[in-house]
Amino acid sequence: MYTHQKNYITTGTPVTEAGAALVMIHGRGSTAQNIASLADSLNVQGMAIYAPQASNNSWYPYSFMAADKMNQPALNSALDTIDQLVQQIKADGIPEEKIYFLGFSQGACLTLDYVTRHAKTYGGAVAFTGGLIGEVLDLNNYQGNFNGTPVLITTGNPDPHVPLTRVEESVAIIKNLGADVTLKVYAGRPHTITQQEIDLTNQLVFK
């Protein structure tokens, strides 16, 4: 089993000149550099980009719907790594309401789980194919109020890694904590990010 170190790259607008920040979380087997390259397709001018790197290129070893103990201590370490990064961004001068989150696949699951465990007013969150993490979701893990934060979740149906039922269950929980959630389901879409999803992200979150 493994844990994560504080390891991230930055790109975009220098934080001393940025009015907002975007945390981009890569999927299993990928890299911080790879997910950060997606920023070139997003309306994130003026944002500082932060992309953390997972140990072993994976935030946790098993499925996001595996028993919690199977993914520990990597999962808790991953959540702590994102929290440390958020605290760093705040220390860099960007307030929480100007912090955005985006992730793909395993990174989308981590994105949703982190922001829902710390629900508050953020700039927005985007999950390209993901849901809340756990064999069975424990509502006690999710606290706070999103106060209308825009959250976009997209997924394919069927998806080989993320069942639509878990996505819909996650949407209900996140909505109940006050987020303005948009769910877009693409029939037959493979496990990837399409131009349609990027366009929708720019329309709904990075306006």
From TrEMBL:
GO terms for molecular function: hydrolase activity. Pfam families: Abhydrolase_2 (PF02230). The keyword Chaperone does not apply. Transmembrane segments: none annotated. The keyword Hydrolase applies. InterPro entries: AB_hydrolase_fold, LYPA1-2/EST-like, PLipase/COase/thioEstase. Keywords: Hydrolase. Residues 16-199 form the Phospholipase/carboxylesterase/thioesterase domain. It comes from the Bacteria. PANTHER family: LYSOPHOSPHOLIPASE-LIKE PROTEIN 1 (PTHR10655:SF17), LYSOPHOSPHOLIPASE-RELATED (PTHR10655). Belongs to the AB hydrolase superfamily. AB hydrolase 2 family. This is Phospholipase. It comes from Mucilaginibacter ginsenosidivorax.
